[in-house]
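hey m, so remember when u said the tokens were messed up on ur end? i reran from scratch. heres the input so u can diff it against urs
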Amino acid sequence: MKVYFIGIGGSGMLPLAHLAAESGHEVYGCDPKARAQAGLIVYNDIDPGRIASVDAVVFSSAIPADHPELVVAKNRNSKGELKLYHRMDFLRELLAQNPIRIGIAGTHGKTSTTSIAGWVLLQIGLDPTIFAGGRPKYLEQGMRKGNGPAVFETDESDGSFLKSGANVRLALNVDRDHLDHYGNELALHEAFRQFAIEGEIAVLNAEDPVLRGIDGAVYYSTNADFPADYQGRFMGQTDDLEVFRGKERIGALSVSLPGRHFASNALGLFALLDTLRSNGLINFERGTLLAAFETFPGVERRMELIGTVNGAEVYDDYGHHPSEIAAVLSALRIRNPGKRIRIVFQPHRFTRTKEHGVGFANVLALADECWILPLYSAGEQPIPGVDSEWIVQLTGNRARMTSASELQVLFKTAQSGDIILFQGAGDVSSMAHAALKRAQET
């Protein structure tokens, strides 16, 4: 089948396009910012005429309804001339033949947990299909086509995780986000509970008040105040866990990525896979699974160490919600006690910034120094009074505005032992890499 992807360069669309090609489809797509891709035919311009010669079109919620190619695709679809898929519907179709379909949901941690899941499934000898919205360092194209269990990242931002087709489900957490889609928190909470209830097997975080109390679910927790089927106990001040199922001590779980949030998510993943083992659906040695977590090579832009300058370590992280930033800063504190943490933050979207401005100001104060870049709109229209300067004001001017051209000042004043963290979902990553390269060359 000839399949055309509108916005093929998107973080969720590109691996899906590669998965479609691996599944035997002839794949085309357009995206002004997309680069050439092996096995795909990619255009940088928009041409509605191309839609006349394809069998199916895939789009995401980021594509506006008046996009010229989507308009033609809808017209042909209404006449029965082609198939039109939202990206989650198309992923569901691609994975339909995988007997075990593990969908991972959560406001925070989906990409890293999906990436870890694929890695550990490989290490215990299975042949998984893996689909992540970021780029695991062990998968060049962000996906893998296999004949065993499928593990994939879902998307709650547009509600499409409710049509994922997953028969095994892991929900990590629920936080206040995407209210532009849901309208209110109650609707957001109900969507996550529906996601959990509709799975044949659901593994849920007992510490999350939205996810508690669902009959038949398997629960995990790292907090003794919230008893669960699988309990993790942190070892001292580290982010390593002792894992228990009931009163049975299973072993130690240590994740290569720093941070107790990663450890908690890994515990949920262990609980899910061990439940599948107990039900006779997969087979592995528990010790082999626990060891696999420690060798995970990481994910691009998830607490990724991208280099050093003047003895300071430079990290790049995608987190763009106050809870995510707080978790990253906490992880860096645990692994680097006494070191100075200097954060460069780029707010992402006017709607999110309006909703979480105070939260951003509060968590940024956890760093020793804070620079704030101009807001990355992601195509949204400005909201009066909502911008990076507003966040600076909310911090009591403890933070300072900066720009890409001024980042060299940050590097020139870096000292051995410093931690420099670039944080956000916009183009802050490209700024970080460019500035770091310049600093290393001077």
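this time it looks ok to me. The domain at 95-294 is CATH 3.40.1190.10 (UDP-N-acetylmuramoyl-L-alanine:D-glutamate ligase). if urs says something different then somethings off w ur setup not the seq
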